[in-house]
Amino acid sequence: MAGDLASSFKQAVALAEAQDKDRTTRIYADIDLKDYYQQKYSTVFVSCLKSTDHADASPFSFVVAIGKDGRVLRLYADHETNIFACVRPTLQKDEFPHPPISPFYMHISMSFSK
Asked: Rounded distance, CA 110 to CA 7, Å?
């Protein structure tokens, strides 16, 4: 299975962008995945911001490779911040809504500016 996964953050981003062209994956991403992610991870990020000493609130991007059963196959990040390090364990143990294709690459860009 790991041989089928992107080998780098850059490759994972390209695969995520390519998936956006397919109607089925756009529907999954815009409805199922977006709602799930926003409901669960808004509180996770707020908790990490509050609990991390000297939180590095610089913007970052990450990609989650999601398997057919919704489990996280691999995480990719453009750079490591202590906020992402705090969120990483929750992401790694999560089970997302089951995607229409596997692996499904979810690309998220985070910015904490006020």
From this structure: 22
| Contact predicate 81/32, CB 8 Å | no
Cis before 97? omega within 30: no
Q: Looking at the DSSP assignment, which residues form a beta bridge with residue 71?
A: 95
For the chain, first and last CA: distance in Å? 40
Residue with tokens 């059963």: 69
- Rounded to the nearest integer, the mean pLDDT of the chain is 90
The span from the CA of 102 to the CA of 98, in Å, is 9
Render pLDDT for 91-110 as a digit per residue (tens, 0 to 9). Answer: 999 999 999 999 999 999 99
- Go through the chain and tell me how many residues it has: 114
